[in-house]
Amino acid sequence: MNIKILFEDKNVLVIDKPAGISVHPAAEQARNGTGPYGRSKEKTITDWLISNYPSIKNVGEPLVTEKEKILRPGIVHRLDKETSGVLLVAKNQKTFLFLKEQFQEHKIKKTYRLFVYGFVSDPKASLLTGKRGIINAPIGRSQKDIRAYTAGRGAREPLRDAVTEYIILNKFTDSNNDDENKEVSHQYSYIEAYPKTGRTHQIRVHMRYINHPVVSDPLYRGNQDLALGMKRLALHSYSIIFRLPNGEQKTVEAPLPADFKKVIKTYLAPTPIFL
Asked: What is the pLDDT of residue 130?
């Protein structure tokens, strides 16, 4: 497993998680109460961590199910299997608790890049959010699909507050035909999102809530086709800002993966936006 290390010191490890690799084994089955609880044969980030950093095997808080205890060595937050990018790991229990507290107090700032279906309306400027759009809609489990979550009406209790801010980096089409470009089915937006809370599937659920699902999302795109050549969820954890135990503020970025760069080169050239 080829995992790129973005930052490392004696307390913290930050890696660039590839798309298509689960963070820990049987995570979705254990979380959702579906499927077998046994360990999958697929290698996970947990496997890589234990193999390369055996001393952190018991760091953190394992996920205990009725069938087994799933180790989550040093992992203080998670990314969905098909999401790529920055993943923060604690190398000892003291640092784990230190980072966990930052997450609980919403002091850690995460930034995501994503492609969504359709042209997202330009946000109205306000003193509160500047030029950022804001989605403030509580999230609960879907009543129709145990794997999924829903924002607003139709969600099962209990609902949890969820807030996502975003800006539009670009709007573009996938066709050179002027008539086709007027059709919603050929329109897309390139978004940068800033989750203010950390709910499961939050960005994916909130983008569907405003009728702009993430491109190629297997769970929330509805009847939309796979698009832009993206064979996986078009969501990338781009950066994270947190404090190290010594008090230093640290910013770590994960470069855009190859599939994102290909979309930009193909559809946004010659004027792609890089921030």
From this structure: 75
